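Q: What would this chain look like folded?
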Amino acid sequence: MPRAGLTTDRVVAAAADLADETGFEAVTVSALARRLGVKDASLYTHVRGLRDLRERMALLAGGELIEEIAEAVAGRAGKEALAAFAGAYRAYALRHPGRYAATQIRVDQTRVAGSPALRRTGEITYGMLRAYGLGEPDLTDAVRLLRSTFHGYCALEASGSFGAPRAVQASWDKAVDALHVALENWPRDGSGGY
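A: My prediction, written as structure tokens:
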């Protein structure tokens, strides 16, 4: 019988909070049970195991992230939308390091297909990029460029790896400017190569 007041949503939210405090990899079923003051077995009413818990955390965090991005880009297009998207992405990654780490795991494709938040992520991201006149396969390539740039920058910033005296924000702004130029001048030869 489930413990009174303990729901799957509450379990996943507590795991996400724990991840932000101690790191994504430190979240285990045992650590979460201790945090919630229950035995490990009590959690298996709500999650099937660690992989299930982590995928649920990824879906929760992905939903939170896209909500913040959607709010930031609303009513904007082109460079202004790109800068708002990038800023919201970076702010979330730095404010919620454990949750953000959860968004980087590979989630079972059946869960991805059934997730309104992940569908919305595609809609918002692809919508922003279509304003640059991109279609497939260029859209997929551009999404990969943005994701790898944003993730790499956020990961390096979070670990304190930027040691040069230049302000990190100034470099971020320059990176967004460079991405805008790249998107405006996207190579559209259609061959998939050079």
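Residues 73 and 80 are 8 Å apart (CA to CA).
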